[in-house]
């Protein structure tokens, strides 16, 4: 019988995507492993392969369609010997409405029925971070919600279909102003010229994840100044020695290595928050924020503690380049226990970074600035000083522990030869 080709879930957080381009047309024969389409997720454009062989009988979703829900039918594959009659019971897919349409149709939309079992394993409930936040906002016990996502995972639409009355009455609160709607904000600027820019998938995910991070993660901040003069001299000598090999190390490469070693020295900081437990990692998998057009990637340098600085430099250049081209695979930007965000190269002296869940911490790196400092003998001299701020999830890492970690980072950067010991 005809096989429905479904919209794939190309990352753990993907709930919908854009069918950017079909690589086949109706009537084409395909084999297992052949490329069918290019799918835009919240983070990247990825190629989608055929799982079965047959003939493309019908394309249900046109290329360029946005907001196609995961597991929605996008095409029909005819098996050997089948003809168009095998598709009589196949109906065109109805792609999920765009965000702008959801607000308009919300009052009249009837939630789809689902027969999936609740996404539970023992006492755990599988749900997306956004679904958990919506459940908390509406006072809904997520354990009682039936998930319609992949493998019964609870997703956003499941919570929108669940009435808030399922929750226990919330205690009285002081009234606060509700979030402004797009229409109410636009009304404020109706007499001003402006350009309306729809949110792409990446910007929607960034907004949701960072809102979740600031609302649910108890951040605290540890600040420290680090003297860079020895590191700058060591970098100069190493770059001269490596010039023939075409390698040029950046200050950021040394920071990555210093943090990787510090995570090994203070292993309790090499940890992530997992709802009802903490996961303590063995390798130092360091994520580094990379700014791209319209958003941000945090590619992960795995086993950073075991790699040389030149290896880290090459890998970081490769990951950053492919991040800007949106060519990273999910495993290259997911995971890690800790992240680095360096705005010093843009002249920012200091700032506080938002933790990227489930990471336990993130280091905000400012610019190295020439400043007067007091030497051990009491004299005043000039030194290159860099300000760093460690944002910490207090559920995972306590203050004294975070201070130990930051002290080790400072030790390696102020005494760079210690990184090679």
The largest β sheet comes out as:
6 strands, mixed
Mean pLDDT: 83
Regions with pLDDT < 50 over 5+ consecutive residues?
A: 93-122, 165-178
User: H/E series, N to C?
Assistant: EEEEEEEEHEEHHHHEHHEEEEEEHHEEEH
CATH class of the largest domain: Alpha Beta
Please give the radius of gyration in angstroms: 25 Å
Query: What oligomeric state do the depicted chains represent?
Result: single chain
- The structural class is alpha+beta
- CATH architectural arrangement of the largest domain: 2-Layer Sandwich
Structure summarized in a few sentences:
The protein has 10 helices and 20 strands. The protein has helices at residues 99-105, 129-138, 156-160, 182-188, 201-216, 229-242, 251-265, 309-324, 330-333, 399-414, and strands at residues 3-6, 16-22, 29-30, 35-40, 45-49, 54-59, 65-69, 73-78, 120-121, 124-125, 219-227, 271-273, 278-280, 286-288, 290-292, 295-297, 300-301, 338-342, 361-374, 380-393.
Structure description:
Helices cover 26% and strands 25% of the residues. With 421 residues, it is an alpha+beta fold. It folds into 3 domains: 3-96, OB fold (Dihydrolipoamide Acetyltransferase, E2P) (Beta Barrel), CATH 2.40.50.100; 112-168 and 195-216, Dihydrolipoamide Transferase; 218-420, Chloramphenicol acetyltransferase-like domain (Chloramphenicol Acetyltransferase), CATH 3.30.559.10. A 6-stranded mixed β-sheet has the order 11-20-19-18-14-17. A hairpin with a 4-residue loop joins strand 12 (271-273) and strand 13.
């Amino acid at each position: 019988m005809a096989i429905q080709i479904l919209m794939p879930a190309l990352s753990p957080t993907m709930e919908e995507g854009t069918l950017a381009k079909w690589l086949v047309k109706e009537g084409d024969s395909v084999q297992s492993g052949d490329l069918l389409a290019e799918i835009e997720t919240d983070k990247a454009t990825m190629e989608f392969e055929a799982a079965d062989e047959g003939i493309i009988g019908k394309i249900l979703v046109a290329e360029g369609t946005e907001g196609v829900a995961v597991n929605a039918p996008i095409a029909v594959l005819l098996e050997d010997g089948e003809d168009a009659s095998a598709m009589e019971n196949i109906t065109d897919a109805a792609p999920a409405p765009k965000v702008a349409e959801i607000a308009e149709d919300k009052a009249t939309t009837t939630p789809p029925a689902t027969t999936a079992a609740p996404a539970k394993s023992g006492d755990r409930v599988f749900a997306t971070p956004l679904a958990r936040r919506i459940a908390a906002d509406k006072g809904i016990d997520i354990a009682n919600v039936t998930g319609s996502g992949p493998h019964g995972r609870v997703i956003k639409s499941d919570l929108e279909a669940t009435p808030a009355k399922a929750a226990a009455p919330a205690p009285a609160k002081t009234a606060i102003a509700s979030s402004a709607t797009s229409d109410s904000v636009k009304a404020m600027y109706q007499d001003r010229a402006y350009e309306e820019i729809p949110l792409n998938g990446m910007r929607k995910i960034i907004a949701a994840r960072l809102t979740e991070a600031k609302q649910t993660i108890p951040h605290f901040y540890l600040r420290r100044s680090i003297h860079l003069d020895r590191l700058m001299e060591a970098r100069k000598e190493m770059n001269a020695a490596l010039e023939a090999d075409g390698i040029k190390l950046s200050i950021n490469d040394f920071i990555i290595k210093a943090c990787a070693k510090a995570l090994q020295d203070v292993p309790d900081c090499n940890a992530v928050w997992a709802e009802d437990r903490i996961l303590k990692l063995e390798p130092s998998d360091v994520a580094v924020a990379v700014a791209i057009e319209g958003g941000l990637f945090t590619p992960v340098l795995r086993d950073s503690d075991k790699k040389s600085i030149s290896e880290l430099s090459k890998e970081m250049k490769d990951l950053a380049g492919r991040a800007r081209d949106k060519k990273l695979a999910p495993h290259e930007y997911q995971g890690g226990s800790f992240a680095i965000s360096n705005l010093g190269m843009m002249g920012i002296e200091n700032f506080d970074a938002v933790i990227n869940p489930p990471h336990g911490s993130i280091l905000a790196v400012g610019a190295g600035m020439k400043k007067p400092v007091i030497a051990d003998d009491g004299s005043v001299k000039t030194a290159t000083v860099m300000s760093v701020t460690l944002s910490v999830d207090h559920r995972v890492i306590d203050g004294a522990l975070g201070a130990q970690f930051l002290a080790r980072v400072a030790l390696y950067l102020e005494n760079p030869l210690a990184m090679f010991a």
